[in-house]
Amino acid sequence: MTVLRSGLPHRPARSLATMVGALLAILALLLGLPSAAGAQAPRRAPEPTHPGQDWAGSQIAKHEGTAAGTAPPASSLAASVEGVDVSSHNGNVAWSTLWNSGVRFAYVKATESTSYTNPYFAQQYNGSYNVGMIRGAYHFATPNTSSGAAQANYFVDHGGGWSRDGRTLPGALDMEYNPYGATCYGLSAAGLVNWMKDWFATYKARTGRDAVVYTSTSWWKQCTGNSSAFGAVNPLWIPRYGSSAGELPAGWGFHTIWQYTSTGPTVGDHNRFNGAYDRLQALANG
After folding, report:
1. What is the pLDDT of residues 248-258, one digit of tens each?
2. Of the listed 54, 176, 210, 269, which one is catalytic?
3. Which of 9, 114, 207, 215 allows an S-S link to 162, with CB 3.0 to 4.6 Å?
């Protein structure tokens, strides 16, 4: 007679439970059901609904004001170069007028998220180049709609590339207040910093250049915890509508471009490159 000893496991039952568990796991994979142990994919916001109203500084002016100045004081004009930035809200730009007034470089909005391209991009990007300006393209970031890599690739594929022709600036990433909701796009400081690292790394892999970052000190402090992760590599384009560029975000000892007014002649947004013309050419050449 077989004697069952007390305390030994009931092996047939364990084997059956193991088999059932394995079958359920396979069934979940086949049906596309989420695993209890797996990480959920991040929720994404919908694509932008009014990207034509979003340009470099559109939200800065709304949240931080425009101050009173429309031009920097004369003492700041030495060793600097006048520039502008434009987007679809400017329409067809009178580039000859700007050139004749002394403007020598331009940044043009190319894209936003992974769904929008500036319908005036060709006239603005090529038109500035054709009158003799050094030009570059920028991307308006929406970090809650898709990954940094996805948006960097979209930007490069739709006008944000770079060539060593001496007159094309590295692309710029516009990081500012969310036009569609939560100021920091519903992300933590670490989440935003990682998103930007993803964007910058992808852009450099595609073009060989470190991109410029456009941001205000106030937004940067609030949304990135005043991260110093980018100051040693990415040139700073800072908006501040007044008599000086003011306090800079952590990590940067100086600014490269200062957007000093949103109400300048012909197009509104005017900038100063922080250096002589040959340094602007050096930035273009990489």
Report:
1. 999 999 999 99
2. 176
3. 207
Q: Are 251 and 219 in contact (CB under 8 A)?
A: no
Q: 64, 82, 112, 174: which is the annotated catalytic residue?
A: 174
Residue with tokens 């580039």: 95
Give the model confidence (pLDDT) of 160-202 as tens digits: 999 999 999 999 999 999 999 999 999 999 999 999 999 999 9
Q: In whole angstroms, what is the distance from residue 7 CA to residue 100 CA? A: 95
Please choose, from the candidates 222, 221, 254, the residue with its C-alpha nearest in 3D space to the C-alpha of residue 238: 254
> Is the Cα torsion angle 90, 96, 97, 103 positive or negative in sign?
positive
Residue 152, sorted as left (phi over 0), alpha (psi -120 to 50) or beta, turns out to be: alpha
Q: Which pLDDT score, from 0 to 100, does residue 72 have? A: 58
Number of H helices, E strands in the chain: 8, 9
For residue 50, give every residue at least 6 positions away whose Cβ sits within 8 Å of its Cβ, in sequence order, or none: 179
Detail the DSSP E strand segments found in the chain.
Answer: 81-86, 105-112, 116-117, 134-140, 172-174, 212-214, 236-239, 257-264, 268-273
Decide: residue 76, CB within 10 A, 0-12 exposed, 13-18 middle, 19+ buried: middle
Q: What are phi and psi of 153, to 5 degrees?
A: -65, -40
Is 210 a catalytic site residue?
A: no
